[in-house]
Amino acid sequence: MKRDFLSIFDVHKDEIFEIFELTKKLKEAQNKGVDHKILKDKTLAMVFEKPSLRTRVTFETGMTQLGGHAIYLAPSDIKLGTRESVPDAARNLSRWVDLIMARVFAHKTVEDLAKNSTITVINGLSDLEHPCQVMADLFTIRQKRESLEKTTIAYIGDGNNVCNSLIAASTLLKFKLNIATPRGYEPNKEYIAKTKTASLTHDPKQAVKHAEIIYTDVWASMGQEQEAQKRKEVFQPYQINRELLRSAPKDYMIMHCLPAHRGEEITDEVIDSPASIVLDQAENRLHIQKALMVWLLQRS
């Protein structure tokens, strides 16, 4: 039976650590120049409704390093739901390729792709979750710290897809997650209802008080451009800057899933500081996604 990866909730705790171990091995192999063409002659279809630097480059490069091939399908190539229905696209791709990665606006799109395909579907981003990003984030933290369970993460800003995936991960892996959002911009209520490890506040200073990891994201995601000005005003007290970090422990690390709107959700001096591990996060997108593709195909 095929395995899809649409949400962090699609894997169990033990499976997450299996994927981390595989990621570590593949990263070491790549860094040492050791051949690891595990997916020789496999083909990945990359379906994009939203453009991306990291998602496209890391999936395409990863598939190449694994010995396979990736096909980029731009927003104008398929026009899911207009030129062709999502079920029809899924059924056709199932006849030609070995797995699908989709970066979409609505989470229902990846669900419909998975429901109507006979091959593995990976969520490269949707409005509900960004699971590949958060898997890379957690792998990065695990390489920096002794234990995830002993780590407190503060997420400051919009209760968006990244925040939802962090809540799902904290529910499974039991690390503490302090979320600070403005009123009216909280994360998904159903996700909050499922967790005993995530807490919600509207005070960013309270959220960072005991956090070793301080995480933020853009205030207005793609598709929310019309709200950008209003969000700049509402979110200004949630900027990650030197003043806010005075409330944090001395050994904090800074994370951001990128792209960053410098001077908005985070200042230059913070994102470029020695405490910043944002480029490690970005690099590990490559390695975790390689491991996910291998792991999922081995179980499908």
At CATH's second level, what is the architecture of the largest domain? Answer: 3-Layer(aba) Sandwich
* Class based on secondary structure composition and strand pairing: alpha/beta
Gross morphology is globular
Order of helices and strands: HEHEHHEHEHEHEHEHEHHEHH
- Unreliable segments of 5+ consecutive residues: none
Tally of contiguous helical segments: 13
Strand content: 5-15%
The CATH topology of the largest domain corresponds to Rossmann fold
Q: Report the strand count.
A: 9
The first-level CATH class of the largest domain is given as: Alpha Beta
Question: Assembly state here?
Answer: single chain
Mean pLDDT: 96
Q: What is the rounded distance between the termini?
A: 5 Å
Highlighted features:
44% helix, single chain, alpha/beta, globular, Rossmann fold, 5-stranded parallel β-sheet, 300 residues, 2 domains, 4-stranded parallel β-sheet, 13 helices
In short, what is this structure?
The chain has helices at 13-32, 54-65, 75-78, 86-96, 107-116, 131-144, 161-173, 189-194, 204-208, 228-235, 242-245, 268-271, 278-298; strands at 43-48, 69-73, 99-103, 120-125, 152-156, 176-180, 198-201, 213-216, 253-256.
Question: How would you explain this protein's 3D organization?
Answer:
The radius of gyration is 19 Å and the shape is globular. Helix 6 packs across helix 7 (161-173). The longest helix has 21 residues, at 278-298. It has two domains: 8-130 and 284-298, Rossmann fold, CATH 3.40.50; 131-281, Rossmann fold (3-Layer(aba) Sandwich), CATH 3.40.50.1370. It has helices at 13-32, 54-65, 75-78, 86-96, 107-116, 131-144, 161-173, 189-194, 204-208, 228-235, 242-245, 268-271, 278-298, and strands at 43-48, 69-73, 99-103, 120-125, 152-156, 176-180, 198-201, 213-216, 253-256. 46% of the residues are buried. The strands form two sheets. It has a five-stranded parallel beta sheet. It has a four-stranded parallel beta sheet with strand order 2-1-3-4, with helices on both faces. It contains 13 helices and nine strands. With 300 residues, the protein is an alpha/beta fold.
